Amino acid sequence: MISRFQTILFAVLLLASAIMGVALWQLREHAHQRLLAGEDSAPTQAPAIAPSQQATLLVARDADNSLLAQVQSLPLPQDPGAQARVILGKLLDLYAAPDAAHPVPGGANSIAQVFLLPAQATNSAAAEKDSPTGPQLAVVNLTGAFVATHPSGLETEDLTLLSICATLHANLPRVTQVRFLVDGQTRATLAGHADLTRTYLTAGSVPHP
Question: CA 77 to CA 51: how far, in whole Å?
Fold first, then answer.
C-alpha cells in the first residue's frame, strides 16, 4: 500500500512539475514575442554604402616598365587607412584581371591592412612630424598568399611596389614613405628580388608627364 507520506510527496512533485511547465511555457512565449519585435524593428532597407569618389591608380605596364594613371570611381570610406586599402585593392584587382598589363594573381584580398603613421622625421621635417598635416608613413601589410604567387623578377617586383607607392601618394599626398609587411612580419624580398626591408619614398614613384 502507498503510505500517506508517499501520496503527499507525489502530489507535491506533480504540482511542482505543473508549475515549472507553466513557467517554461511563459518564458517561451516571451522569447517568441521578443523575436517578433526584433524582426519588426529590423531595417527594411540595406545600409547605405560609402559614397563614390574619384581615385587615381598608377597602373604598372610590363611592356615598357611604366606606370599609367587611371581614374576610377570607387566607394571610399572616410577613414584614410580604410581608403588606402580600398584603393590598393582595386589596383591589385586590375593586376588579377585576365587582360592585365602587369599580371599578378591575388586581387583585393592581397591587401590585409594599411596603417598610416607619422613619417620618420628628417632634419627639414622634424618640426612637422607630430603635426596633423605632417608627412605620413604607410605600412602596407600584404598576405602571404599574394607574395607566394607573385611572379619572380626584379623589374616585375619593382613595378608592383612602385605602383603601390605611387597610387598611395596620388590619393593621399601626405604619404611620403611606405613600408611593406607580409602577414604582419618583415620579409626580405617580394619574390626573391625587390627589397621589402627598406623604406620606400613616394616622391620619386609618381611619373611626371
Answer: 8
Domain of 23 in residue numbering reads as 1-42
* Mean pLDDT (whole number) for 99-126: 85
Predicted TM-score (pTM) of the model is 0.72
Do 38 and 87 fall into the same domain? no
Mark out the alpha helices in 42-104 (DSSP H runs): 80-96
Cα distance from N-terminal residue to C-terminal residue, the chain: 108
Give the pLDDT band (50/70/90) at residue 61. Answer: very high
CA 45 from centroid of its chain's CA atoms:
25
Cα–Cα dist 119/139, whole Å: 10
Query: Does residue 189 sit within a domain?
Result: yes
Q: How many CA atoms lie within 13 A of 44 on its CB side?
A: 2
CA separation (Å) from 157 to 3, 64, 101, 150, 163? Answer: 92, 14, 14, 8, 10
pLDDT tens column, 69-108: 999 999 999 999 999 999 999 999 999 999 999 999 999 9
Beta-bridge partner residues of 95: none
